[in-house]
Amino acid sequence: DLAINPVISGAGVNIKLLDYLSYGLPVVSTPTGIRGIQGKDSEHFLVSSLEKFPLAIKTILEDDILRNKLSQRGKDLIDEQYNWVDLSKRFANLLKEIAISHK
What we know:
Blueprint: E1 3-5, H1 15-22, E2 27-29, E3 46-47, H2 53-62, H3 64-81, H4 84-101
Parallel strand pairs: 1-2, 2-3
């Protein structure tokens, strides 16, 4: 029904968060868990401290409108900004720019 991402330390993008969103799961995450993701709290996922996770989970489970909104907008975020086809094209272009600048 939903995904939780209770990450409290680490570096880089949390790949499992991208997976959760791509599956259309509404997500509750810590601020650390969403690092590197260009989504917005209460639009693409709920951001919460660990102490308030139970309340955030309850909120999603009890609010059909919010759950559906987070599910759809989270999936849209992945489809628009984090799909592999577009990411690989941007990465290839970046590599070309680096190669050209080092000639």
